[in-house]
From TrEMBL:
Source species, domain of life: Bacteria
Residues in the signal sequence: none
SUPFAM superfamilies: GST C-terminal domain-like (SSF47616), Thioredoxin-like (SSF52833)
Record bears the keyword Repeat: no
Organism encoding this protein: Pseudomonas baltica
GO MF entry, a single one: transferase activity
CDD domains according to UniProt: GST_C_6, GST_N_3
Descriptive protein name: Glutathione S-transferase
One cellular component (GO) term of this entry: cytoplasm
Keywords: Transferase
Domain GST N-terminal as annotated: residue spans: 2-85
Length: 207
């Protein structure tokens, strides 16, 4: 029986990052999934009980304690396997890879906020300026990755690559009209290649 339980939803890009790391580090069997459906306006009582922030992913450990958010869970799980760490332990590579991963999270935050605004908020309350600024955040992130990060993303499928792949996957899932591949062909080439990995193929977002 799995030792840990992960609050999860197949549409959540943050939960997907955890799933991808579990695949990549051979730990899938250590975690049972507890699928929950929640949003900022329809919370889940069991998630609220284990994570006062009311968010997924949250990881309940064998001793009953709960870890959140995805960054903390990823760091924890990366200390639980014997292979090469996916989060460099020290020095410049650690801070660089975590910074690229943080940019991917910021792009995801913006994409999820746009999704919530469009899917949950009444149309008469939509705020175009706010939506535009979230979309510009994603665009700046894509432009930065194209210009500065493709070579290093190609060097290792680690915390930075997992974050960027999950961010691009979520843009494809919820913003299929984006057309980002035309504007960022190097990033698109990298993404096409890593999308063949079993960890990404088996975690493609679904509603
Ligand atoms: C979504 O449906 O897009 C979604 C679900 C869970 C967390 C974040 C986003």
């Amino acid at each position: 029986m799995p030792a840990m339980t992960l609050y999860h939803n197949p549409a959540s890009p943050f939960a997907r990052k955890v799933m991808v790391l579990l695949h990549e580090t051979g730990q899938l069997e250590r975690v049972a999934l507890k699928t929950v459906a929640l949003s900022p306006v329809s919370p889940d009582a069991s998630v609220n009980q284990d994570n006062p922030a009311g968010k997924i992913p949250a990881l309940v450990l064998e001793d009953g304690t709960t870890l959140h958010d995805s960054r903390v869970i990823l760091e924890y799980l990366d200390h639980q396997h014997v292979g090469n760490p996916l989060i460099p332990r020290e020095g410049a590579p650690r801070w660089r890879r975590l910074t690229v991963a943080s940019l991917a999270d910021a792009m995801l935050d913006a994409a999820v906020l746009i999704r919530y605004e469009k899917a949950l908020r009444p149309p008469e309350l939509h705020w175009p300026l706010w939506l535009d600024n979230q979309a510009e955040k994603i665009e700046r992130g894509l432009a930065y990755l194209e210009a500065t990060a493709v070579a290093e993303l190609s060097a290792a499928f680690d915390i930075a690559a997992i974050g960027v792949a999950c961010a691009l996957g979520y843009v494809d899932f919820r913003m299929p009209e984006s057309g980002w591949r035309q504007r960022y062909p190097e990033l698109a080439g990298w993404y096409a290649e890593v999308s063949e990995r079993e960890s990404l193929r088996s975690t493609v977002p679904s509603a």
